[in-house]
Specification:
Largest sheet: 16 strands, antiparallel, barrel
Oligomer: single chain
CATH architecture: Beta Barrel
Distance between the termini: 39 Å
Shape: globular
Number of domains: 1
CATH superfamily: Porin
Number of helices: 1
Structural class: mainly beta
Radius of gyration: 21 Å
Helix content: under 10%
CATH topology: Porin
Order of helices and strands: EEEEEEEHEEEEEEEEEEEEE
Number of strands: 20
C-alpha cells in the first residue's frame, strides 16, 4: 500500500500485481524491437539469436502460454537478411477542445541485413519505409537503419539506431507509444544491464541537429530507467519491484542566426508493482513529476505532478492468444511531458494555450493479443485494443481503438 496526497486528504491505493519492468499499462510488445536482455528475469540469457524465446521471459512473451514442445531453438548467433512489416490503425476520439484526438492509419516496412563479426559484436544496416494512408507523399518517411551492438555477459551497448519507443519501458504519460508512427526510429547511444537485484537502461536520442543558417534548434532526449527487484515470484507467491525513470528533453543550440528560446523539460516517475505467481493479476501505482528549468518559461505550467494506478487481469489460452483488461485511475495537476501521450498532459506540445490544468479520468481498457508461429517466420503478432475513457471533472466520455499486425522474417535489425 502506498499513500498519495490528494486535495489535503489521503487516498489509499491497494496493489496486487506487476511485471518486473517499467512497461506501460498495456502491453506494447508489438511495437518493440526485441533485445536479448530479458527484463523480467533474474538471470541472463545472452548470446542467443533474436528469435529465441525464454520460458521465464514474461517481459518478452508477455505471459502467453508456450509449451516446451513449441519453444524455438536457441542459437548462439546468426547473420542474415531481415524483412519486417507493421500495419497500424489507431483512432483517438477524445472530443476535447484542447485535445480532439488523432487517427493513425498506415504501414511500415523495414529490411536489411545483420552480421555477427564475433559472438559479442554485430552490425546492422537497412532501411525503413512508412506510408501514412492518404498522404500524397510516398513514402511518407524514409529512414536509414544502421547500428553496432556489443554484448557481454552483463551488458548490452548499442550505437546508431537504438532500440527506441516501447523498448524504453516508460509509462504512457511520460512516453507515448504513438511515437512509433510519428518518429519510428531513434538514433544515438543505448546501454542495458541487469542482475538479480535490478535492471537498468540508459539512452541518448539525438532527435534533431542544429542548422545555423535556418536557425533550426537541436533536440535531444536523455533517459534512464531502473527497476529494483525486491521479491522474485519464482521463489515467493508474489513478485514486488520498484520501477522508476528519468527523462530529460532539451531543445536549444548555439550560434543560430536567429536566437531561439532554450527549452528543457524533466519528467520523473516512481512506482511500485506487484504480481501474483501465476501472473494473472498485476497492480501498480506511479507518482509522476514534471519540471521546466528553462531560463524562460516556455509552457503554461512550470511544475506538475500526478499519480496513475493500474489494476490488470490477464487470461490467456493455449493457442498463443491473450486477453488483458486494465482498470486505470489517473489524476494530474499541471503535468506536462513533451514526449508523453497527449491524453495525460495538461497542455499540448507546442500549444500551451490549449490546456486543462487538472486531468482526472478512469479507463477500462481491453486488449487482445495473438502470436502466430509459422515456418521461417521469426515474429508474427496481431493486436486489437478498445479503450473507453471517462473524464471525472468534465463528465465527458471518450475512447480510443487500435488494430495492429506485425511480422518479421529473419533477425532484428533495429
Amino acid at each position: 500500500m502506498i499513500l498519495i496526497p490528494r486535495n489535503n486528504f489521503i487516498v489509499f491505493i491497494f496493489l496486487l500485481g506487476g511485471l518486473n519492468s517499467a512497461v506501460a499499462q498495456l502491453d506494447n510488445f508489438i511495437f518493440k524491437r526485441q533485445t536479448d536482455i530479458t527484463y523480467a528475469q533474474s538471470e541472463f540469457n545472452f548470446g542467443q539469436s533474436d528469435t529465441a524465446i525464454n520460458e521465464d521471459d514474461s517481459s518478452n512473451n508477455q505471459n502467453l502460454y508456450i509449451p516446451k514442445s513449441e519453444k524455438k531453438e536457441i542459437r548462439v548467433y546468426r547473420s542474415g537478411f531481415s524483412f519486417g512489416n507493421l500495419m497500424y490503425c489507431k483512432n483517438n476520439e477524445y472530443g476535447e477542445n484542447n485535445n480532439p484526438g488523432q487517427t493513425f492509419f498506415g504501414n511500415q516496412l523495414w529490411f536489411g541485413g545483420k552480421s555477427y563479426f564475433t559472438q559479442n559484436l554485430s552490425g546492422s544496416i537497412g532501411l525503413l519505409l512508412q506510408y501514412d494512408y492518404g498522404d500524397n507523399k510516398f513514402p511518407s518517411k524514409t529512414l536509414p537503419i544502421f547500428n553496432i551492438e556489443y554484448k557481454t555477459n552483463k551488458s548490452h551497448l548499442i550505437a546508431g539506431t537504438i532500440l527506441g519507443n516501447a523498448n524504453h519501458y516508460l509509462i504512457e504519460p511520460v512516453y507515448n507509444y504513438e511515437n512509433v508512427f510519428t518518429k519510428p526510429l531513434e538514433y544515438g547511444l543505448q546501454y542495458y544491464t541487469q542482475n538479480k537485484l535490478f535492471s537498468y537502461q540508459t539512452w541518448l536520442d539525438w532527435r534533431q541537429f542544429a542548422k545555423i543558417a535556418t536557425s533550426q534548434q537541436e533536440i535531444i532526449s536523455f533517459g534512464q530507467t531502473i527497476n529494483i527487484h525486491l521479491i522474485d515470484s519464482s521463489k515467493y507467491p508474489v513478485a514486488i519491484s520498484l520501477p522508476s525513470s528519468l527523462l530529460v528533453y532539451h531543445q536549444g543550440g548555439e550560434a543560430l542566426n536567429i536566437p531561439q528560446r532554450i527549452q528543457t523539460s524533466i519528467n520523473a516517475t516512481f512506482g511500485i508493482r506487484l504480481s501474483d505467481k501465476s501472473k494473472h493479476l498485476r497492480a501498480e501505482s506511479f507518482y509522476l513529476i514534471s519540471n521546466d528549468p528553462s531560463p524562460t518559461l516556455n509552457h503554461a505550467f512550470k511544475n506538475g505532478q500526478g499519480s496513475m494506478t493500474n489494476l490488470t487481469y490477464f487470461f490467456y489460452q493455449k493457442d498463443f492468444s491473450q486477453h488483458r483488461i486494465v482498470a486505470t485511475y489517473y489524476k494530474a495537476i499541471e503535468f506536462y511531458s513533451p514526449l508523453g501521450a497527449t491524453l495525460f498532459a495538461s497542455e499540448l506540445q507546442g500549444k500551451p494555450y490549449f490546456q486543462s490544468r487538472v486531468r482526472e479520468f478512469v479507463m477500462l481498457r481491453y486488449q487482445f493479443e495473438k502470436v502466430f508461429y509459422l515456418p521461417n517466420m521469426s515474429d508474427f503478432k496481431f493486436d486489437i485494443r478498445v479503450e473507453p475513457i471517462y473524464h471525472i471533472e468534465q463528465k465527458l466520455f471518450a475512447f480510443s481503438t487500435g488494430i495492429y499486425l506485425k511480422y518479421l522474417i529473419g533477425n532484428r535489425i533495429n
